[in-house]
Amino acid sequence: MTQATVPHKIIGVAVIWNDAGKILIDRRKPGGKMGGLWEFPGGKVEPGESIETCVAREVQEELGIEIAVGDSLMAIEHDYTDFKVTLNVHHCQHLSGEPQMIECDAIEWVTPAELDQFTFPEANGVIIKALQQQASPNG
Ligand SMILES: Nc1nc2c([nH]c(=O)n2[C@H]2C[C@H](O)[C@@H](COP(=O)(O)OP(=O)(O)OP(=O)(O)O)O2)c(=O)[nH]1
Ligand SMILES: [Mg+2]
Questions:
Q1: Which parts of the sequence bind Mg(2+) (predicted)?
Q2: What is the pLDDT of residue 139?
Q3: Contact predicate 81/3, CB 8 Å
Q4: pLDDT at 1
Q5: Which of 18, 27, 91, 125 could be cross-linked to 70 through a Cys-Cys bond (beta carbons 3.0 to 4.6 Å apart)?
Q6: Residues linked to residue 118 through DSSP beta bridges, in sequence order
Q7: Angle at Cα 73 formed by Cα 47 and Cα 99, nearest 5°?
């Protein structure tokens, strides 16, 4: 059997904290395999772009807000059925702007404990566990 080469998506992901110690999550639009699931804002790293620049750009494009991109929380590799992702996750701080649903269906500010009430893609389990085991870097 021929081994097909699966696409590998390199993603910059933002864990955006506000001053109340809450994290911004959004719900992906319906349709497709991950449609309707909640996620941390982010998207594909462009050629030649740093992870930090990607994270700030995606958040501006998807939500229309300004953030400061801080330390890396983790980088996770995950194999989905038909593609592979690397999620490069950074702690971020909300600076300005009211989040808008430019490319998503819903937005919520939640505490780390409340993340359990939302359905995320499979790869997110380890991120959520890490966030629940550490205090907010700003709180
Ligand atoms: N932004 C974000 N993406 C996530 C998370 N968890 C997770 O598995 N992903 C996956 C879903 C997507 O395949 C990819 C994010 O890239 P994206 O939002 O630009 O991509 P997409 O797949 O909707 O776009 P496309 O390939 O159809 O153009 O990473 C997460 O918490 N946040
Ligand atoms: Mg995206």
A1: 42, 62
A2: 46
A3: no
A4: 65
A5: 91
A6: none
A7: 75
| 8-17/84-96 β-pairing | parallel
| Tens digits of residue pLDDT in 6-58 | 999 999 999 999 999 999 999 999 998 899 999 999 999 999 999 999 999 99
Average pLDDT for 94-101: 98
Q: What is the complex's ipTM, to 2 decimals?
A: 0.92
Q: Could you give the CA distance from residue 139 to residue 19 in angstroms, rounded to a whole number?
A: 7
- For ligand 2, the distance from its centroid to the CA atom of residue 1, given in whole angstroms, is 34
d(CA 116, CA 113): 6
Report the relative pairing of strands 66-79 and 84-96 from DSSP bridges. Answer: antiparallel
Question: Can you list the domains of the chain with their CATH numbers?
Answer: 8-133 (3.90.79.10)
Report how far residue 18's alpha carbon sits from residue 30's, in angstroms, rounded to the nearest whole number: 27
Tell the residue number behind the tokens 């991109």, with chain if given: 69
All residues at 6 or more sequence positions from 133 whose CB lies less than 8 Å from its CB, including other chains: none
For ligand 1, say whether the CB of 67 is within 6 Å of any of its atoms: no
Q: Which residue out of 59, 85, 86 has the highest number of ligand 1 atoms within 8 Å of its CB and is therefore the one to mutate? A: 85
Closest CA to 38 of 114, 91, 97, 93: 114
pTM score? 0.93
